[in-house]
Write a structure and sequence with these properties.
single chain, 646 residues, eleven-stranded mixed β-sheet, 21 helices
Length: 646
């Protein structure tokens, strides 16, 4: 009987919830989604997890990785189950999203069930689910496709944190048997973000100390500890399992991820945003602000006014007000209906807010909304407590109200259908990346070169290469995102290609628009006879040997009568440099140092739509007093522009 009751109260609603979400996102089972941007970077790590060799979490824009790969292994399991075995999804990312919905559903219903152990009343579960639907709707209306259905790691953190906070409150209220759930929740959020070490550490410690106090006050405290010995052992095992990849990474890699975290902390040793900024940052989440960058410098009154004039936010806060009013009335008239858990959960909420404000004060860089996405769980916890209070009050007034429970269950599901657009992830992937990667199938390795703003496409191409076993590499400054095993090595002779936002080109064949500027960035032109680019506070430059050449492509003839070629760089004394373009001599450079000289050339010397070559020849090249290399000319830039009209 108990198992059948559990099936109706938990399993069946959870399965139906997941089924509705997947039905709303039925395109996941039909349209292959090709990853770009962060999803592609994560997909590379998921592929490594399929081979049981991933030891890191998702990358941070501060050049380190978050602590652990738990969700990458879950997504890898989804690939095996839904893709490799059942063949119900057409691409890996589709499998990741299906698995994500199932995991988020388990975390949501697990949180509700944890609270249900403390909250009397037969209507708590459906009311709590209705509250969750309301919060998901509000969040996704402000940030479309984020809560529940997004596999972007900042969005993923919402339901793990909710589960962790629920388990913490349960343990703190004296249910020691939930300690393994606390350990699972704590380690999951730590794997997702390095800052969660603060939240997991403080909240876990506080919960365990509170549980210890309750246990010591029990009449038979020794029996309590013996009774829960398996829970203690299981908790230790869970923590050890989640620590394993972190420990292995520390032992096997040098430098390791901890070294990169330390380097970041040294760069930003003591950041402070201020309590005002931190408070407005929190208020942005409490009011469901739609801004991607939290309006932390706007007056708080503006955020409140915006929330008051936004119907869905106003409705949510009206429900909060009504629920709080009911709870206060209960506390006054029927104080016994409010359990110890209620007060513990309220205290936990205060601690979470305090930790959030402290953490927000220490944020480095912009106060982006995605940083604190997990704090939307406060809305869920608050509404869950209100649902518990209302359920208890209704049960006390109408003891036979439980028979209406099945009818109340229809409320959240009908609401999901009515608001289906807010439970749908509209992302259809980036098919252009699949096309680009399919065109690059020649034998040998590729070196992917790209401008900074084109990294989302480049990492998408890299993900396709990884998954089909195509060799590639990137420059060392991108190793933190693509993986350090994919950094180009001196022994490699890869085929260099330039990746743009929509296409790829052999190095030197990317069409440059006039006026064209070529710099020693290894992107705009293929460089031969030059040493590696060097950097200064004034910009990049590179030295040539005796002869250095730039190979590049011009997009089209702009109809100019002739063209000016302006070379900026440095010529050593008594080492003049002869400049030619496509075999036509332009002139000689001499007596310039970090300055420019211009040459005019006829339109017949340039090849539009084809590769051009500019050559710099230093007949008297050789070592200098401070440089043992065969040094010729120092290049800073070349600019080509039309002069006059035909």
């Amino acid at each position: 009987m108990r198992i059948k009751r559990l099936q109706f109260r938990v399993l069946l609603p959870a399965l139906l919830f997941a089924a509705v979400v997947l039905a709303i996102n039925s395109h996941w089972f039909r349209i292959p989604l090709v990853e770009s941007s962060d999803w592609a970077a994560n997909s590379i790590q998921v592929y490594h997890a399929k081979m049981f060799r991933e030891m890191l979490g998702n990358y941070s824009r501060w050049y380190f990785h978050h602590p652990g790969p738990a969700f990458f292994y879950l997504f890898a399991a989804g690939e095996y189950l839904f893709g490799d075995w059942l063949h119900v999804v057409p691409a890996p990312m589709n499998a990741h999203l299906v698995m994500l919905v199932l995991v988020n559903t388990a975390l949501l219903f697990g949180s509700i069930e944890i609270l249900a152990r403390h909250c009397p009343g037969p209507l708590f579960r459906p009311l709590a689910l209705a509250a969750a639907v309301l919060v998901i709707y509000n969040v996704n209306l402000s940030h479309p496709g984020s809560a529940l259905v997004s596999s972007w790691m900042p969005h993923v953190a919402l339901f793990p944190f909710l589960f962790f906070a629920s388990a913490c409150a349960s343990v703190a209220a004296g249910r020691v048997g939930h300690l393994p759930l606390l350990a699972l929740g704590a380690m999951t959020v730590v794997h997702l973000h390095v800052a969660q070490i603060l939240f997991a550490g403080v909240l876990s410690l506080a919960a365990c100390l509170a549980a210890l106090v309750w246990a010591l006050r029990a009449p038979a405290s020794r029996r309590v500890f013996r009774q829960h010995a398996p829970a203690f052992a299981l908790s230790v095992g869970i923590v050890a399992l989640f620590l394993l990849p972190m420990v292995l990474e520390l032992v096997l890699h040098k430098p390791n991820n901890l070294d990169y975290v330390r380097a970041y902390l040294q760069l930003y040793p003591d950041p402070h945003q201020g309590i005002g900024v931190s408070s407005r940052y929190l208020l942005g989440f409490l009011t469901f602000s739609p801004d991607a960058v939290s309006p932390v410098y706007a007056p708080a009154s503006d955020l409140l006014a915006q929330a008051a004039h936004t119907p869905h936010v106003a409705i949510c806060w009206a429900l909060f007000a009504a629920g709080l009013g009911t709870s206060v009335a209960m506390a006054v008239r029927h104080p016994k209906l409010l359990s110890r858990f209620t007060w513990v959960a309220l205290a936990e909420g205060v601690v979470i807010v305090a930790l959030f404000l402290y953490w927000a004060d220490r944020i480095t860089g912009g106060m982006y909304q995605f940083n604190g996405f997990f704090i939307y769980s406060l809305h869920l916890l608050g509404l869950f407590l209100i649902a518990a209070a209302m359920s208890a009050w209704l049960a006390s007034r109408w003891p036979h109200l439980g028979r209406w429970g099945r009818l109340v269950w229809t409320i959240p599901f009908l609401s999901m259908v009515a608001a289906a657009g807010e439970f749908r992830n509209p992302d259809t992937g980036t098919p252009a990346i699949r096309k680009m990667s399919d065109e690059m199938r020649s034998p040998g390795a590729y070196e992917l070169l790209f401008q900074h703003d084109d990294w989302p496409t480049a990492v998408g191409v890299a993900n396709q290469f990884v998954r089909r076993g195509q060799a590639f590499c990137v420059t060392g400054d991108w190793g933190f995102m693509f993986g350090y095993e994919y950094v180009c090595q001196p022994s490699m002779t890869p085929r260099k290609v330039v990746i743009t936002g929509t296409a790829w080109f052999e190095l030197g064949r990317q069409p440059l628009k006039l006026p064209a500027v070529i710099e020693p960035d290894e992107l705009s032109a293929r460089m031969e006879g030059f040493y590696a680019p060097e950097h200064s506070h004034e910009g990049n430059y590179c030295w040539s040997g005796r002869t250095g050449s730039l190979f590049f492509t011009l997009e089209r003839d702009d109809g100019a009568a002739e063209y000016r070629v302006t070379v900026t760089g440095s010529v050593l004394p008594y080492r003049p440099v002869e400049v030619s373009i496509n075999g036509h001599r332009l002139g000689v450079m001499d007596g310039i140092w970090k300055s420019s000289v211009s040459f005019l050339t006829g339109r017949d010397t340039l090849r539009f739509g084809d590769i051009n070559q500019i050559q710099f020849h230093t007949a008297d090249s050789g070592p200098t007093a401070v440089d043992a290399r065969d040094v010729g000319f120092s290049l800073i830039s070349v600019r080509i522009e039309g002069v006059g009209r035909q």
